[in-house]
Amino acid sequence: MSKVALITGVTGQDGAYLSEYLIKKGYTVHGLKRRSSMFNTDRIDHLYQDPHHENRNMILHYGDMTDSMNLTRIIGDVQPDEIYNLAAMSHVKVSFDVPEYTANADGIGTLRVLEAVRLLNLTSKTRIYQASTSELYGLVQEIPQKETTPFYPRSPYAVAKLYAYWITVNYREAYGMHASNGILFNHESPLRGETFVTRKVTRAVARIALGLQDMVYMGNLSSKRDWGHAKDYIKAMYLILQQDTPDDYVISTGITTTIRDFIKMSFAEVGVTVAFRGENENEQGYITEIDEQKFSEVVGEEYLERIKERIGKMVVGVDPAYFRPTEVDILIGDNTKSRTKLGWEPTYTLQALCQDMVIHDVELMKKEEYLKNGGYKILNYFE
Ligand code: NAP
Ligand code: F7E
Predict the structure, then answer these.
(1) pTM over 0.85
(2) Which end of the chain is more exposed for a tag (fewer CB within 10 A), N or C?
(3) Could you tell me the distance, in angstroms and rounded to a whole number, from the CA of residue 322 to the centre of ligand 2?
(4) Which residues line ligand 2 (CB under 6 A)?
(5) Is there a catalytic annotation at residue 157?
């Protein structure tokens, strides 16, 4: 009998990679999908099977983290061996705009899943993974951050996730449930949402290289993040649920980098050198040099003349609209526990991650090039 997993947030970055990974391992994967007025399954369309297909190993259910009865019904129907609770309003800046909804979906939503498992008498059958986050460390109390570092959340998102973290621990201790937190540091990929900083940068680099856009406005260039590849991080989720006893684990690379340096790295992937001058909202990034051979190899010789005209011009500006009311200045994780207990380790360097994303976005923008600006969501207007 194949194992059955239920993934909330199946249409998101991690949900897509995890579904693929579990299906390859022989699981039947059930996913919770929100109703949307447009298709929202782009990331998992390659895994989708028509309902008329016999012996499906990927099944989607309409649902929402704010609807207890719906969650309870689906968990009762599916009788999962493992639940990966990945659904969340996951954008930190947006959580300041929709704090109550974020608390409901990210905080109480987790309680709904745990309580459904308990009420359905599935506590000894169903193992639960909770998508906790390095945002819990917020105003960091220790560098690097590990499982014992005190939390200090700095956004409605992080506060909602703090509740979710502790309610998971509480259900484990109160009812003996196999419920665990993965405290995952930032992880990125070509599937990353377009308004998170790495993807905003790699998309902008691709569009600037192709001459589709002149520049990009960013927020705080000095904050530091510990970035890994989502493909590595979903393996940690799986390993956490394969342990005999439930526990909480930091998943990170142990390397931290400023946003500014990630921007420089991304431009370097297309052979463009960018330098910064000025401070705070007056800081600007401009092109100093072009490696013509690299640019031609990665982007295409036909785009070279246009980018050469941009030497000395500004390609990155700062708009304080992207600053957050309270910022998380630095995150860097100590992954000793996950390395030693789970045998997990990251395989992608930051440079390999950056290259994966930039090359993907150059190819994507070339495909979309015919749409020109009118066909795009304008990158700069989003957080
Ligand atoms: P993501 O790409 O934003 O995906 C979030 C998923 O949750 C999407 O499938 C989304 O559906 C779904 N969702 C949002 N609100 C929902 C609701 N009310 N009901 C049902 N589904 C809902 O996030 P991700 O990067 O894959 O992250 C997965 C989880 O890990 C999230 O809980 C996130 O907070 C957490 N996390 C992420 C990171 C990271 O660096 N990526 C680090 C630590 C923790 P739509 O597709 O319809 O929007
Ligand atoms: O911001 C700065 C911004 O939005 C990273 C989520 O997956 O990881 C993610 O949360 C940093 C912040 O991710 C822009 O101020 C500068 O310091 O990519 P981000 P995040 O807030 O760290 C954690 C672990 C999660 O759990 C979350 O779900 O980059 N920054 N300029 C910018 N950020 C954005 N988005 N846009 C900018 O223009």
Answers:
(1) yes
(2) N
(3) 10
(4) 90, 92-93, 133-135, 185-186, 195-197, 200, 218-220, 223, 225, 259, 322, 324, 327-328, 383
(5) yes
Nearest CA to ligand 2 atom 8: 186
Find the Cα–Cα–Cα–Cα dihedral 345, 349, 353, 359, rounded to 10°.
-140
Residue nearest to atom 27 of ligand 2 (CA): 90
Q: From first to last of its 383 residues, what are the pLDDT tens digits of the chain?
A: 899 999 999 999 999 999 999 999 999 999 999 999 999 999 999 998 988 988 999 999 999 999 999 999 999 999 999 999 999 999 999 999 999 999 999 999 999 999 999 999 999 999 999 999 999 999 999 999 999 999 999 999 999 999 999 999 999 999 999 999 999 999 999 999 999 999 999 999 999 999 999 999 999 999 999 999 999 999 999 999 999 999 999 999 999 999 999 999 999 999 999 999 999 999 999 999 999 999 999 999 999 999 999 999 999 999 999 999 999 999 999 999 999 999 999 999 999 999 999 999 999 999 866 555 544 444 444 44
Q: What is the largest CA-CA distance in the chain?
A: 67
Closest to 178 measured CA to CA, from 119, 127, 247: 127
